[in-house]
Amino acid sequence: MPSSMKINRPQPRDFPEFFQRYIDLVPDGNVLKVLEGQVLDFQFIFSDIPLEKEDFRYEKGKWTLKEVLGHIIDTERILAYRALSFARGNDAVQPGFDPDIFMANADFNKRTVYDLAHEFGIVRNSNLVMIRNFAEADFQKRGVANNWEMSVGAIVYAMAGHALHHISVIKSKYLI
Fold this sequence. Notes:
Blueprint: H1 20-23, H2 31-46, H3 51-54, H4 65-87, H5 99-104, H6 113-132, E1 142-145, E2 148-151, H7 152-174
Antiparallel strand pairs: 1-2
Helix pairs in contact: 2-6, 2-7, 4-6, 4-7
């Protein structure tokens, strides 16, 4: 992606209303820098987690720290597929996903926080290569996922905002 190319902040017509809370968290400027910085943020935040905190739940019925990380990775992959699908002109409606069903069918707790943070970095870096190689016009392309129309650019912002949201929750609920 040429350095002069900019992914414009999406407008409300570009994404489902429930993505607003994520997109609002993304600071103004270059969203790619935010996405890149999150790889290092994850490594920094999760490099010093004591073993006794890895399986911590801040409340009964809430996910463990490992499960939150797994959810971030799953969501990243789903959003990346949607971005790729829409950018490539696939007009097939993409399904929604229920994070609780995904969690019920995953066993993130058998892994380490380090392993999950490392996987996040691999997935995010792969997605960054994909995003940087989209044409500028691709960010305006649209598709339907979970019965909601959205643009590729909005998906990129949602990736950044979703991770920002969960990092905030992790800092305020898990690492106190």
